[in-house]
Write a structure and sequence with these properties.
alpha/beta, seven-stranded parallel beta sheet, NAD(P)-binding protein, NADP, globular
Length: 255
């Protein structure tokens, strides 16, 4: 089997389930060493078992905490020797809430995980990245088009695209690329529609041209592509992975 990422280190946040887990398994299959974090260590351990023969570092990390992120990055460098690829996948999926009923606590929770977490990780890894390194961030179709009663979530995902495009310009001259994946209706445990089940799942299935949910592995394949040489001239791009979303649908995506 080809190992294009042999002797390269890939740092993945939110690696305990869904797209983060699928990407860890994908990158391990391509030869990468892994530095994985999640707030749920049991889930993280389950991911690690699927990458059993891969050199790796695991840690339960709240990406919204500067101190925990700095320790995680320091330990990654100490154990694995460097960082070449970064996949910012940690985040909180939406709950549909009218704005006037939205609490300060809900705003803070989503901003902390979905935006501050990416900021903390990116700021922390930049001094360790060399020419040829690559960052991929997870936004959403909700970072491209709005959804009623999901103003806070959409704000974080729109903001993440803006942040990523700024990083593409700031880090590009150093030979470091930053790109974004924007998943649509993906079959993951934290997808809001999956959690609701029933009619919500049916709406998601009918909400795209392919007439099915996407899989975490299908997103992971795109992430691996963005890390690889085949995408070497892509920087600041936003790749929609949504099966051909229909504009009239309002059910949210999920990791």
């Amino acid at each position: 089997m080809s190992a294009p990422f042999q002797d390269k280190v890939c740092l993945i946040t939110g690696a305990g389930s869904g797209i983060g887990r699928a990407t860890a398994v994908k990158m391990a299959s391509l030869g990468a060493s892994l530095s994985l974090c999640d707030i749920n260590y049991d889930n993280l351990s389950a991911t690690a078992k699927q990458c059993a023969s891969t050199p790796r570092h695991l840690d339960d990390v709240d990406v919204g905490s500067k101190q925990e992120v700095e320790k995680f990055i320091k330990d990654t460098i100490g154990k694995l020797g460097g960082i070449e690829f970064v996949f910012n996948c940690a985040g909180v999926n939406p709950t549909s809430i009218p704005l006037e009923e939205t609490s300060d606590e809900y705003w803070d929770r989503l901003m902390n995980a979905n935006l501050r977490g990416v900021f903390n990780i990116t700021r922390g890894v930049i001094p360790h990245l060399k020419r040829g390194a690559s960052i991929v961030n997870v936004s959403s179709i909700s970072g491209i088009r709005g959804s009623a009663q999901q103003a806070v979530y959409c704000t974080t995902k729109f903001g993440l695209i803006g942040f990523s495009k700024c990083m593409a310009l700031e880090l590009g001259p150093k030979g470091i690329r930053t790109n974004v994946v924007a998943p649509g209706y993906i079959d993951t445990p934290t997808n809001a529609g999956i959690v609701k089940g029933g009619e919500a799942v049916t709406r998601m299935i009918n909400g795209n041209a392919l007439g099915r949910l996407g899989t975490p592995e299908e997103v992971a394949d795109v992430v691996a592509f963005l890390f690889g040489e085949e995408s070497r001239y892509m920087n600041g791009a936003v790749l929609e992975i949504d099966g051909g979303i229909k504009m009239s649908s309002t059910t949210s995506s999920g990791k």
